[in-house]
Write a structure and sequence with these properties.
Radius of gyration: 18 Å
Structural class: mainly alpha
Shape: elongated
Strand content: under 5%
Distance between the termini: 18 Å
Number of strands: 0
Number of helices: 4
Amino acid sequence: MSNFAADFKTSVSVNGISGRSRAEWLRRYVSFIFILFIIAFGTSLSIRANLGSSPISAPPYVLSLVPGSPMTMGQFTICMHVFFILAQILLLRRDFERR
């Protein structure tokens, strides 16, 4: 483990961040899911208003244009962000800090 990671882990445990209650975890996850919906809505609204899309929202937009696509652009955006989180967990493996 690098010095930065060791220092960060020490500062996290000293500050008591690892001792969150179930209510705090529930609040954090609910707010995370709500924020994902806000991001998806904002991206979809930007596309519908003909303002264009950012590079990060281009893949969901292109996938939503495929004829017969079962999902909307907002649903693709949410799936893409969940994929990013799962990819981060897989890439970091043991270094991924589960709190």
